[in-house]
Specification:
Subcellular location: Cell membrane
Oligomer: single chain
Order of helices and strands: HHHHHHHHHHHHHHH
Helix content: over 70%
CATH architecture of the largest domain: Orthogonal Bundle
Radius of gyration: 24 Å
Number of strands: 0
GO molecular function: dipeptide transmembrane transporter activity
Number of helices: 15
Shape: globular
CATH class of the largest domain: Mainly Alpha
Protein name: Peptide ABC transporter permease
Distance between the termini: 17 Å
Structural class: mainly alpha
Largest sheet: none
Strand content: under 5%
Main location: membrane
Membrane topology: Multi-pass membrane protein
CATH superfamily of the largest domain: MetI-like
CATH topology of the largest domain: MetI-like fold
């Protein structure tokens, strides 16, 4: 399945890159370049070859792990992508942590207090998170906490006066903890807060609605009713019988949510000036840097398929019924 998906993504992105308006060779050469210089660059980028030959050469390079050269920087695309990856990965992990820590408890709470005030409040939060565009929410938070209140930091991952911790993982929060640099840790967390909250908003809404519906269904099942009939404490019934079963659908959705966080980071990083992969890819799109765009599509597709494969394996481990069918 994985090779077919990746081949399909490569084929689609390659086709789009070739039919899109604009000439990458002219963009590299500049507006005042001579036709001869543009032709030389087009030949160097292999843009003058027939499309089947270009596609075959690109697939062959991918098989060797070569994603091509960035038109903007003239550096290998793989190096560029992986140099920006730690910042995006840190933002995604923080947003995912917020999604789990806020979405799951809020979903359980709304199910336990169905049609009462906590349920109404939780559903309002879920609907708002799903409905409000992330870029608008990000701009609103920046306006409030940065421009009006002045308590949120500006762009970047650290304050300009703070020295970055020694690079071990590329994730400033973890690197700060490893060397116990409290100043860098505090600055990294402050810079992460608003982008991660904005990125997690839609995922929190999805998780709240999913966990709420699943929890309501589980609470009506026979095993939970039997536990109540035996007089077991409500806390034990929820944690031991209801919650594990209610979280099974949540696990299946996590692969999709991780993918949505990756693609959502393109917008969020641009709004908050976060120097990650999303900002880099957006710049590549604006500058028609097709090797970077295609390289990002391949890596994102691989991550998407791998995440869903991991979710399927985890789902089999959690649900005995699925193990019996496998």
């Amino acid at each position: 399945m994985l090779p077919l998906v990746l081949l399909g993504v490569v084929l689609v992105t390659f086709f789009i890159s070739r039919v899109a308006p604009g000439d990458p060779a002219q963009l590299v050469a500049g507006p005042r370049a001579s036709p001869e210089a543009v032709a030389a660059i087009r030949e160097r980028l292999n843009l003058d070859a027939p499309l089947p030959e270009q596609f075959t050469a690109y697939v062959g390079a991918l098989g060797r792990g070569d994603l091509g050269q960035s038109i903007m920087s003239d550096r290998p695309v793989a190096e560029e992508i992986f140099s920006y990856m730690p910042a995006t990965l840190e933002l995604m992990l923080c947003a995912f942590l917020l999604t789990v820590l806020v979405g799951v408890p809020l979903g359980v709470l709304t199910a336990l207090y169905r049609d009462r005030l906590p349920d109404i409040g939780g559903r309002v939060v879920a609907i708002a998170g799903i409905s409000i565009p992330t870029f608008w929410l990000g701009l609103l938070l920046l306006l409030l906490f940065y421009s009006v209140l002045g308590i949120a930091p500006g762009a970047g991952r650290l304050d300009s006066s703070v020295v970055a911790p020694p690079t071990q993982t590329g994730l400033y929060v973890i690197d700060s903890l490893l060397v116990w640099d409290g100043t860098a840790l505090s600055s990294a967390l402050r810079h992460l807060a608003l982008p991660a909250l904005t990125l997690a908003a839609a995922s929190v809404g999805v998780v709240v609605r999913l966990v709420r519906g699943s929890m309501i269904e589980v609470l009506t099942q026979d095993n939970v009713r039997t536990a109540r009939a035996f007089g077991l404490p409500k806390r034990q019934i929820i944690l031991q019988y209801a919650l594990p079963n209610a979280l099974v659908p949540f696990v299946t959705v996590m692969g999709l949510e991780l993918s949505s966080l990756l693609f959502g980071s393109v917008v969020i990083e641009s709004v908050f000036g976060w120097p990650g992969l999303g900002s880099f890819v957006l710049a590549a799109i604006l500058n028609l840097d097709f090797p970077v765009i295609m390289g990002f599509a391949v890596i994102a597709s691989f991550a998407f398929v791998a995440a869903n494969l991991l979710v399927d394996l985890l789902y089999m481990a959690l649900d005995p019924r699925v193990r019996g069918l496998a």
